[in-house]
Amino acid sequence: xxxxxxxxxxxxxxxxxxxxxxxxxxxxxxxxxxxxxxxxxxxxxxxxxxxxxxxxxxxxxxxxxxxxxxxxxxxxxxxxxxxxxxxxxxxxxxxxxxxxxxxxxxxxxxxxxxxxxxxxxxxxxxxxxxxxxxxxxxxxxxxxxxxxxxxxxxxxxxxxxxxxxxxxxxxxxxxxxxxxxxxxxxxxxxxxxxxxxxxxxxxxxxxxxxxxxxxxxxxxxxxxxxxxxxxxxxxxxxxxxxxxxxxxxxxxxxxxxxxxxxxxxxxxxxxxxxxxxxxxxxxxxxxxxxxxxxxxxxxxxxxxxxxxxxxxxxxxxxxxxxxxxxxxxxxxxxxxxxxxxxxxxxxxxxxxxxxxxxxxxxxxxxxxxxxxxxxxxxxxxxxxxxxxxxxxxxxxxxxxxxxxxxxxxxxxxxxxxxx
Length: 419
Prior knowledge:
- This protein is of the alpha/beta class.
- It has 2 domains: 4-142 and 304-358 and 390-400, Rossmann fold (3-Layer(aba) Sandwich), CATH 3.40.50.450; 156-302, Phosphofructokinase domain (Rossmann fold, 3-Layer(aba) Sandwich).
- The chain is built from 12 helices and 15 strands.
- The protein has helices spanning 18-30, 46-50, 62-67, 90-102, 114-129, 156-177, 196-201, 224-238, 274-286, 296-301, 308-326, 377-383; strands at residues 4-10, 36-42, 54-56, 105-112, 135-140, 184-189, 213-216, 241-246, 259-263, 269-271, 290-294, 332-340, 345-352, 395-396, 399-400.
- The strands form 5 sheets. The chain has a 5-stranded mixed sheet with strand order 3-2-1-4-5, with helices on both faces.
- Strand 1, helix 1 and strand 2 (36-42) form a beta-alpha-beta unit.
């Protein structure tokens, strides 16, 4: 087998552990120097490939690459940039192949969510049409946990751990003040269509630490009358109430209640503000004093409280991506397969991108309580192992120590290209 270079890039919203996948790719490639030359990273995702803005990861020491495992966000820069269809923008794909040819890239590792799976598949298809030998492997990542054919998505477990922990801690705060002050706390979490993160908030409440919790899922149409009755019931019984609400909450007509009227580069509606809206409705209708918070970037950047399970799986899919490529696989994704709940066990298998791209895994109705405001025992069995274990980063002077790579540029060989 001729030794060729590899391309790696990060796409979409970053996570607390996406860099662990990067480490998995780079470290595994370095262990196969007879088959893989350099790993060239795209600066700011696929844009780096289009503009030939490539990073030479061979300039990074082994210790710096290893430190990626405890460093959050995207070490090489990410982007929200959706490639059009092959028919609409063949020239863009031809440009990618031109760049790959110029730098002798034979492996394409694209680390992202749904849209990235679609991009990876399209790149594989155009390489085949143009007769360019390229193995395209999608490395899964998304806090939304909505990729199909995988039990869970790297990045989700750490977000789940963060929101469950944050809600539990906030609940203790509210409980201590409820007699004379705040009676309601609302936390808005991510989740455009699927309520996996909202469900994870439900882990804040358990038999040992009961919390009066009401959850609002995107899969359940918002019914204000029923919701306010549930909140009143919790306050009457416990003296306070905590609410977890998805940014993707919809009304009875299926409309996004927090749609801002703008769209991102992937064509998704920009969301935000459902948390304060829900809090204000409670105040207007029930008169309770409230506080609200939007977890926003904090939930996906919180490496200090990342799930050890999530960290291990994130590294594993990066490692498996290289191994699958070397075994001859193409247009696949390393999928996490759960083999046991108790004890929790899992393995990695290759899943075809044709069955993954442009598909979404929604939160099953069986995971949502009958009244629509909580999670079931079935959901707890699924969610609990994903947030287990602690893997804190090193601390110095009281704060986490993260790394910034050199990100040395590879000399360009082609003409300038504008995206």
